[in-house]
């Protein structure tokens, strides 16, 4: 198995007169039946299948035999009323609501899920907007965090989110799960629970229910009683630690998002028992001087590089670039305890004070870390480039390597810049200079490809020993960073190309182009700056690069970069390839970080299987589940991003909490109907200025110009404006800052004032028609 089984009725999957556009009344293929059951779980009984495909008489008997064969092969499971794919949810399922997504929508998981089926799939909960239930009587059920519900399950239409959506049928149990908050002492020995997010509610904790909790402790609680009046009452279940202690801030995000951070004993045992890889099915590359280049504080090293001139006379001045990646697939086998836990995590999560790894340290920091001078198994790709930077060809190899050196980005860059140290000096001529020569050649190909080139500096937080913020800074972007990035991109491209050539199913990293709606918003905004954006759906990254180039060295540079970024879609994982818009690549798959991303581990297994590299290949069950796996790890990636962002917000809010009343220089980073978001560049922190505090004028929101403008004065604020604000409030637990505007608004451009005149004129005509008084402005 492991090969893509041709084009499995792709045309037949499109709905027409019948569900899959096949000849009505004829027996469908096995693949079509499996696809139909996955897409229509509510119609997955034998009777519904026969009805959907118009089967009668002998064809019904054949369908029965075919379904029995699929059951015996493990491709289907029989429930009381229907058939389901293994690992798929039945049409009606009991769910526990465990977390929220980045938009605050509830996410649930099945209450019962076998361990041997990996991680339980995420389900987006659709709350009813109707005032009554299905029968038109009573209120529709509204669920909350921790509730257990009975739900109707539907396949999700959004490829980038959870694999399923659900409609609540009934709430079975309120608030089963533990909630997180900070315990605060209250009079009489009681306590209060302060929520750790803005949507949470405060709770009362009776003296008998507080356990050993002390003032300032981060605690998990369960709801003890929900009355009709007053605050809900809670019981302390466990004490995580003091909010003031080191690493408490990241623990809030870990618990709030349900990120697994403790490895089960079976996983630790499997990692501890793992033995070093052998030479079986491997080439001996221990004499190849591959080196690792990583951050100075990196504990694991999963990629190594080497470059040399191509000796072939057919490729004058060409280069051969080798990228070797730790062979995680040898140690983490499909459906093992290690594998199931890795999929449950999806990726490593990086906080300023800690890392929550996808794999135990025995694997990530030891057996799969390409340590200097130590034999380590790897998958390597050898890529040949012409002097123009075009990739001529590539080959993959399963190898045993020995890293010749471990350098930091700063060390490698300093050596190239003429400041080599004792370690990098001997590597300069034989290794580092050929690497930089290869990078210069590869850059020619990148310039021709024209990926999206946004200029968005990434800020880093440096912590003190007690876990509080020391300083926030923007690390320099070195050529050493760019060199490793470009070599990893080309290795990822090579992985996707090889697997496609082998007709092997895989998980791609895809990035859709901006939607027409987002393009239109960006087009209207750019028009206010005198920058045009061509209309039409066939946009390429280069179109946006030309816009960014026009904004270079102008007061609008940062603002334009932010608006272009907002117009972009989010990259996700998918077994269906649409290309990567931002990188301007048609074939792209993550291959280079299997220690910290599950998607890369899947790609490694696919390469091992399709190239006949021995043990650790992808299995048929994995291939059948790639849609669900891709949806899951895309969700977990967003979960990690949200947790990392919230932790930074909380750390900065803690850092600034003692400076309420002080003034700061900032920049307007967001404009809404409710007010302005202002970023403090020195801290990378965002705060909000409510529109009601801007002054006595009536402020009008202009989306096209990204502005709030006073109706009478014409003074206002636009995206990107430099402003002075005063810190009015800091809420560290929620990571929230509130500012008061000190800077006077500036005169809006003529286009904005004309927009307001048009609005007033239209509003006046409307008032004359209906006889209403004008609305009063905000004060």
Q: Can you characterise this structure?
A:
This protein is α+β, with helices and mostly antiparallel strands. It folds into six domains: 30-84, Arc Repressor Mutant, subunit A (Orthogonal Bundle); 92-128 and 141-171, Beta Barrel (OB fold (Dihydrolipoamide Acetyltransferase, E2P)); 179-243, OB fold (Dihydrolipoamide Acetyltransferase, E2P) (Beta Barrel), CATH 2.40.50; 265-509 and 583-645, no CATH class; 514-568; 658-758, Beta Barrel (OB fold (Dihydrolipoamide Acetyltransferase, E2P)). It is 29% helix and 25% strand. It contains 18 helices and 34 strands. The strands form ten sheets. A five-stranded mixed beta barrel has the order 3-4-5-7-6. It has a five-stranded mixed barrel with strand order 8-9-10-12-11. It has a five-stranded mixed β-sheet with strand order 13-20-19-16-15. A hairpin with a 5-residue loop joins strand 8 and strand 9 (191-195). The longest helix has 31 residues, at 626-656. The radius of gyration is 29 Å and the shape is globular. The model is unreliable at 1-21, 129-138 and 763-779 (pLDDT under 50).
Beta-strand fraction estimate: 15-25%
User: What topology, given as strand order, has the largest sheet?
Assistant: 3-4-5-7-6
Tally of strands: 34
Tally of structural domains = 6
Average pLDDT over all residues: 84
Spatial gap, N to C terminus: 70 Å
> Unreliable segments (pLDDT under 50, ≥5 consecutive)?
1-21, 129-138, 763-779
* Secondary structure: helix percent: 25-40%
Main β sheet profile = 5 strands, mixed, barrel
Number of helices: 18
Q: Structural class, from secondary structure content?
A: alpha+beta
The gross shape turns out to be globular
């Amino acid at each position: 198995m492991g090969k893509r089984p041709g084009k499995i009725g792709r045309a037949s999957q499109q709905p027409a007169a019948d569900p899959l556009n096949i000849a009505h009344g004829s027996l469908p293929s096995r693949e079509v039946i499996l696809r139909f059951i996955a897409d229509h779980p509510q119609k997955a009984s034998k009777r519904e299948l026969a009805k959907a495909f118009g089967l009668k008489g002998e064809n019904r008997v054949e369908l029965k035999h075919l379904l029995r064969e699929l059951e015996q092969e493990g491709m289907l499971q029989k429930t009381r009323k229907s058939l389901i794919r293994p690992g798929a949810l039945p049409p009606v399922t009991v769910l526990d609501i465990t977390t929220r997504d980045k938009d605050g929508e509830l996410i649930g998981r099945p209450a019962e899920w076998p361990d041997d089926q990996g991680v339980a799939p995420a389900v987006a909960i659709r709350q009813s907007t109707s005032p009554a239930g299905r029968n038109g009587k009573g209120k529709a059920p509204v669920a909350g965090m921790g509730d257990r519900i009975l739900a109707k399950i539907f396949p999700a239409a959004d490829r980038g989110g959870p694999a399923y959506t659900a409609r609540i049928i009934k709430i079975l149990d309120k608030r089963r799960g533990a909630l997180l908050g900070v315990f605060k002492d209250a009079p009489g020995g009681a306590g209060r629970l302060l929520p750790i997010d803005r949507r949470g509610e405060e709770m009362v904790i009776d003296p008998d229910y507080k356990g050993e909790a002390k003032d300032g402790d981060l605690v998990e609680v369960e709801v003890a009683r929900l009355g009709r009046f007053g605050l809900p009452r809670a019981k302390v279940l466990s004490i995580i630690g003091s909010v003031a202690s080191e690493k408490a801030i990241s623990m809030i995000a870990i618990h709030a998002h349900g990120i697994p951070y403790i490895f089960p004993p079976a996983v630790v045992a499997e990692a501890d028992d793992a033995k070093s890889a052998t030479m079986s099915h491997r080439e001996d590359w221990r004499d190849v001087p591959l080196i690792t280049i990583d951050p100075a504080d990196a504990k694991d090293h999963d990629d190594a590089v080497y470059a040399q001139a191509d000796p072939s006379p057919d490729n004058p001045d060409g280069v051969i670039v080798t990228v070797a990646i730790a062979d995680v697939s040898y140690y983490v086998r499909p459906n093992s305890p290690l594998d199931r836990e890795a999929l449950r995590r999806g990726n490593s999560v990086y906080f300023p004070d800690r890392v929550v790894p996808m794999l135990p340290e025995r694997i990530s920091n030891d057996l799969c870390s390409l340590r200097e001078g130590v034999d380590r198994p790897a998958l390597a790709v050898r890529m040949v480039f012409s002097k123009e930077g075009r990739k001529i060809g590539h080959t993959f190899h399963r190898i045993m390597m020995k890293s010749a050196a471990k350098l930091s980005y700063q060390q490698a860059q300093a050596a190239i810049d003429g400041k080599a140290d004792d370690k990098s000096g001997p590597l300069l001529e034989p290794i580092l200079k050929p690497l930089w020569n290869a990078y210069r050649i590869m850059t020619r190909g990148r310039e021709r490809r024209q990926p999206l080139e946004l200029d968005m500096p990434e800020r880093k937080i440096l912590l003190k020993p007690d876990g509080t913020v020391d300083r926030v800074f923007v690390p320099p972007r070195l050529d050493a960073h760019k060199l490793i990035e470009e070599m990893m991109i080309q290795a990822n491209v090579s992985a996707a190309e090889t697997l496609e050539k082998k007709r092997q199913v895989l998980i791609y990293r895809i990035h859709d182009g901006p939607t027409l709606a987002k393009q239109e918003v960006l087009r209207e905004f750019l028009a206010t700056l005198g920058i045009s954006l061509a209309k039409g759906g066939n946009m390429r990254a280069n179109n946006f690069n030309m816009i960014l180039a026009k904004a270079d060295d102008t007061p609008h540079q940062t603002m334009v970069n932010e608006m272009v970024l907002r117009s972009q879609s989010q990259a996700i994982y998918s077994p269906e390839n649409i290309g990567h818009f931002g990188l301007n690549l048609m074939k792209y798959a993550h291959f280079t970080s299997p220690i910290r991303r599950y998607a890369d581990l899947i790609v490694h297994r696919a390469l091992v299987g399709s190239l006949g590299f021995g043990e650790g290949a992808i299995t048929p069950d994995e291939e059948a589940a790639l849609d669900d796996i891709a949806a899951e790890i895309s969700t977990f990636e967003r979960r990690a991003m949200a947790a990392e962002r919230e932790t930074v917000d909380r750390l900065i809010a803690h850092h600034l909490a003692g400076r309420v009343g002080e003034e700061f220089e900032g920049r307007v980073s967001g404009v809404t109907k409710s007010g302005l978001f202002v970023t403090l560049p020195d801290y990378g922190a965002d705060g909000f200025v409510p529109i009601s505090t801007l002054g006595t004028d009536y402020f009008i929101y202009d989306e096209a110009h990204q502005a709030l403008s006073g109706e009478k004065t014409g003074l206002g604020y636009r995206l990107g404006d430099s402003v002075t604000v005063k810190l009015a409030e800091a809420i560290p637990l929620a990571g929230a800052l509130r500012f008061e505007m000190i800077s006077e608004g500036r005169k809006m451009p003529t286009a904005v004032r004309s927009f307001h005149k048009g609005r007033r004129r239209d509003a006046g005509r409307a008032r004359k028609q209906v006889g209403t008084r004008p609305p009063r402005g905000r004060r």
